[in-house]
Amino acid sequence: MNYHVLTLFPEMIEQAAHTSILGRALKNGCISLETWNIRDYSTNKHMRVDDYPYGGGAGMVIEAEPVYRAYSAVKDKIGRKPRTIYLTPQAKVLNQTMVEELALEKDLVMICGHYEGIDERVLDESVTDYVSIGDYVLTGGELGAMVLIDAVSRFVPGVLSNEESAQFESLQDNLLEYPHYTRPEVWHEKEVPAILLSGDHNRIEQWRYERSIERTKERRPDLLQQSLQVHCACYGNEMIQEMADRLCQTLSRYGQVLNFNRKKLRKQKYYFDSHDLVVLLAGKEYEDDAGIPEAFTNLYGKDTPCFLFVPETSIHDVGTDQAKRTDKLQRLLERRGFLMKRIYPLFSIENHCKETVLKIRKILE
């Protein structure tokens, strides 16, 4: 990941970035950072970059030309038009889905405003994304840029020593993280919960899930409304089953996989509501095997969001038996109370699992 920051105060970025985990990542070459001083691109002999706003009003506005010249220099160095972010409170507030999506880029350009802002015309020509770090106003965009750099870098391979630290943590499922404890077992007469000392990993995971829900309900009830319990149901060969496991783990720490290759599971009935997310993976075996009519027909929803993954031919080859069966399954699920959000080809999991999960999250927002 290569960061390029356009700013009037490059020292603010440089000093903050070269410490702790970011400093180590820069040293190891996992990320790179280059600051571009907007003043260096001023056409004024005194290196002035601001002027009074048209229409009157308090404060000064950064001129378009020096920003554009600095942006053009970055673009020429990269060799293409890059993903360019303007840090401003007049934008959507940064969230985990946005962070993970930005982490897929090779280069990120950030423009830091100051004073009353930047001439709108240059923003129209250069900016691809407007991002806020919260509903409050700072003196400049530098601190916002550092927040973004820190958050995004955690998803760049090699930045964290433990990949699980980035994959499973606060906000992974729109839930706050569970409480943490370390030695000693008793501190100020407060004991570590006994379950954490039991060695029973299934019970520990369930305890953590319950504590996450409790903490979110207490501190961020707004997030709880957005949290969905993930269920991935599959029918197909071993590769389809592996895809279901992979997709479920990427979507949620606490997701459930329902393998309908097992007749016992196909015979049970499953009921979901609007707090669930159901994802179905139907392999070629499902569409070819008319002798397994109960697969997926044992699911009942109530305004339950649903995504369906099928072979590519079942989407594009209109009129074929496979496409007709996919259409029949979709109509059945909709009659059963599911809200069909999107149908994807199965190869999107195999080749682009992370990107596909981000698309699902954005659709659900």
Automatic annotation (TrEMBL):
InterPro entries the record matches: Alpha/beta_knot_MTases, tRNA_m1G_MeTrfase_C_sf, tRNA_m1G_MeTrfase_TrmD, tRNA_m1G_MTases_N, tRNA_MeTrfase_TRMD/TRM10
GO cellular component, one term: cytosol
Main location class: cytoplasm
Enzyme nomenclature, EC number: 2.1.1.228
Domain tRNA methyltransferase TRMD/TRM10-type: 1-226
One GO biological process term: tRNA N1-guanine methylation
Key word Phosphoprotein present: no
Keywords: Cytoplasm, Methyltransferase, S-adenosyl-L-methionine, Transferase, tRNA processing
Catalytic EC class: transferase
GO terms of molecular function: tRNA (guanine(37)-N1)-methyltransferase activity
CDD domains reported for this sequence: TrmD-like
Catalyzed chemical reaction(s): guanosine(37) in tRNA + S-adenosyl-L-methionine = N(1)-methylguanosine(37) in tRNA + S-adenosyl-L-homocysteine + H(+)
Assembly description: Homodimer.
Similarity annotation: Belongs to the RNA methyltransferase TrmD family.
Function: Specifically methylates guanosine-37 in various tRNAs.
Name used for this protein in its record: tRNA (guanine-N(1)-)-methyltransferase
Organism encoding this protein: Blautia liquoris
This protein's encoding gene: trmD
